[in-house]
Amino acid sequence: MAKYGKNPRAIGGLVRDAEVHRDVYVDPEVFDLEMEHLFPNSWIYVGHASQLSKAGDFITANIGRQPVVASRHTDGSIHLFYNRCPHKGVKIASEPCGNTGKFFRCPYHAWSFKTDGSLLAIPLKKGYEGTGFTDTQANDGLSRIKNVVVYRDFIFARLSESGVGFEDYFGESLSTIDNMVDRSPEGKLAVEATPIRYMHTCNWKMLVENQTDTCHPMVAHESSAGTAIKVWQREQGNSTETPMAVQLYGPFMSPYEFYEQSGIRIWPNGHGHTGVANSIHSNYSDVEGYLGQMVAAYGEKRAHEILGEVRHNTVYFPNIMVKGAVQILRNFIPIAVDRTLVESWVYRLVGAPDKLYERALMYNRFINAPTSIVGHDDLEMYERAQEGLKSNGNQWVNLRRLYESNEAPDVTAVINGTSERQMRNQFHAWAKFITMDMDQPVEAAE
Amino acid sequence: MISEKTITDFIYREADLLDTMQWQAWLDLFHPEGRYWMPLEWQQQDPVLQPSLMYEDLLLMKVRIERLAGERTFSQKPKSRCHHLLQAPQILVCDPAAGTFKARTSFLYTETRGDTLERFSGWASHDLVPVGDELKIRLKRIDLVNFDAPFGNIQLFM
Ligand code: FES
Ligand SMILES: [Fe+2]
Question: Which keywords fit this entry according to its UniProt record (chain B) (predicted)?
């Protein structure tokens, strides 16, 4: 029996000030409502414009459950459509990316569409004369998604026709993307490689929360980062890969005080980041020639400002995390209530030394891959949570760490780095966006 | 004298050491400069400026192995086990004069985690060098047939 559908009050009841009900992670109906309301009402990351460098280039993605395709048109503009033929619904593009040439051609009956989505041709067109075809939606070609914003080459879309505008939705949080892009001496990023993909048998929100969970690394990652430090201390000098590796693994074992002081900044609408004053990315060694390039491009002062900003994880609500200082974006793609596809993308800093790209690729395989020992620690905890939450002994997940009773929602603030406030911030946004377009509140069934 | 049979025997023994979890003996098969590489792209040439699932030196492999036995390694409770099913290795180079030995072996690999069992298939490429009268691994490369699929945890060595 439907408990939550069309029932904003019941959904609101899942989120308390500093607790959330386990149904947000385990109830398939709540998952369906997220797909139906939360994702369409939010601005979702689709891809990067460098993946669409030439006319005819396309990428495919999903927003919630809905398949979409983005394409570069002959005039250079980027368009986003639902990935379904207006004839009988066949997906127009099936690969993750490619080049379609001058038009998309449906593989079923060969209807074709320009790369701006408009209908180009139908075989035996005469058969439609006098049928009223021109009055149908099919005559308009591929269904367009109107709300698309390309921000510094990052493509975001909102499926709902009405809702919060892009600028209001992200606000100051875009400063993390700015900082990542500014780290290129040319102010440009490029996607050159496929992402690392990692299947998680857990709810997508567990991953998102973990991005600002600073109380787990020294515990859960003692197994991986802790062992790395131990082996290195014993055997240093025996390897060539390792120094950079140790710089990447080592800081995961930083003590609570380090994370407390490094701080968390929250922003309205569920965004926020760890690593305000300091972060685990602070002490990577210099890459020869890079600072010189940055100073030449931006001037002494600005170059140091850009490189001095070493934010750790920035959560863009609902489902991406950006790591500006290592040029990585992780996309937590919900598949089912207990299944999440993680895609970890590396962006190359255009014009910067190869060494920086090498480091970003190394970070990605050390931390974000199915072969990453750090990843093994985290996934194990998510799987155990997904199992443990079935318990009826206590149906509430506790997010009370450093809670203050007067916490205002939708504000910007800098707080203690071990606070669970960013998780509370996310759940406030979750309740807001999932119920935003629901019908008038219906009384919750008793 | 290193023959084609020496190479084949070496590859079978290597898989056997993994299947019986004789980790230290397995590590000892590597040359000090040896690498273990699992590419993420089709016919990948560059392990450094192209993305890989793994590209590790001896010290990093040692970290993995010590982690497997760690008291707080929760993803190894219960411990995983593995099984290699190998096709006869195809000898690509057997040149004792130049000291180069290469083989490519088609495999099916199984890894367990509790009650679940994951299966992978692909090709293992061995690049071997003689050290004294023994062969050592300079590079072990694993090309999975579905390298680009989203996997769950892969915790042992293929
Ligand atoms: S379904 Fe696309 S042309 Fe018929
Ligand atoms: Fe973690």
Answer: Dioxygenase, Oxidoreductase
Task: Tell me if A174 CB under 6 Å of ligand 1.
Answer: no
Residue ranges of alpha helices (H) inside A133-212 are 166-170, 175-182, 204-210
pLDDT digit string (tens) for A176-229?
A: 999 999 999 999 999 999 999 999 999 999 999 999 999 999 999 999 999 999
pLDDT in tens, A38-72: 999 999 999 999 999 999 999 999 999 999 999 99
Non-local (6+) Cβ contacts of A59 within 8 A are A46, A47, A51, A52, A69, A70, A96, A97
Instruction: Say if residue A369 is exposed, middle or buried (CB neighbours under 10 Å; 0-12, 13-18, 19+).
Output: buried
Of B36, B31, B112, the closest CA to residue A238 belongs to: B31
Residues of A in contact with B152 (CB under 8 A): 198-201, 370, 379
Note the pLDDT tens digit of each residue in A311-361. 999 999 999 999 999 999 999 999 999 999 999 999 999 999 999 999 999
ipTM for the predicted complex? 0.97
Counts for chain A of helices (H) and strands (E), in that order: 16, 21
H-only helix segments in A138-252 = 166-170, 175-182, 204-210, 217-220, 227-235, 242-249
Name A235's bridge partners: none
pLDDT band at residue A440 using 50, 70 and 90 as cut-offs: low
User: Which tens digit of pLDDT belongs to each residue from B53-78?
Assistant: 999 999 999 999 999 999 999 999 99
Strand partners, A397: A20
| pLDDT the model gives residue A441 | 47
Q: CA–CA separation, A317 vs A272, rounded Å? A: 8
Are A361 and B50 an interchain contact pair (Cβ–Cβ within 8 Å)?
yes
Q: Report the chain A residue with the minimal C-alpha distance to residue B42.
A: A194
HSE-up (13 A, CA, CB side) for residue A318: 28
> How many angstroms separate the CA of residue A67 from the nearest CA in chain B?
18
CA atoms of B110 and A317, how far apart (whole Å)? 38
The amino acid at residue A91 is K
- Our CA angle for A220, A311, A299, nearest 5°, is 150
Rounded distance, CA A370 to CA A376, Å? 7
Neighbour tally for A444: CB within 10 Å: 14
The H or E element spanning position A354 is helix A354-367
Position A444 confidence tier, pLDDT thresholds 50, 70, 90: very low
